[in-house]
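Database export, one record per block. Field names are fixed; values are copied verbatim from the stored entry.
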Amino acid sequence: MSDSAMDPKVISDCYTRSLDSSINFVKNVSDDAWGNDTPCSDWDVKAVVNHIVYENVWMLALFSGRTIAEVGNEFEGDLVGDDPAGVYIRTANEVKAILAEPDAMTRTCQISSGPVSGADYAKELFLDTLIHGWDIAIGSKQDATLDSYLVEQCMPLGQAIADNDNYRAAFKAATSGSESGNPQTHLLGLLGRDG
């Protein structure tokens, strides 16, 4: 998503705030809601949390200079066990600690498509964390209202995905919500969700 320009400080702030938002949704999942369906058709609430934990631990590894080859299959499978909220909150706070380091956005991270700046990698993770937080809120029947500032900052990233078939692979086709005048509904629609 490097074609959607954002100031690195804004990226770091937005990613941090999206982690806080998702922490709030995850810690409010009731015990009987972990198996609920979510807008991610193949994943229940616990599986969405596991997916974001997966992204968190990859971020921690790649921002620390590890390579994909070094990590190998270390993060495959169930990462959250019987404590999805606790594991999510711990790993999200570890990510926030790295984001607070002065050189985080200028580091080089070796992702699957090649080396990128920490800022470009964090930009992708910001979008995923924000949107999957919404998925968790919907699946666990919480108020799924997202921070309007984060929605605004995420909009160019969502539009870049909707406009680029290479990005589209991870998302469903845009819904009618993408025509909405409501910013959150519009963003979610660009990413294949009915919000």
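Remark 1: Helices lie at 8-27, 45-63, 68-71, 84-99, 118-139, 148-163, 165-168, 183-190.
Remark 2: Residues 71 and 93 are 21 Å apart (CA to CA).
End of record.
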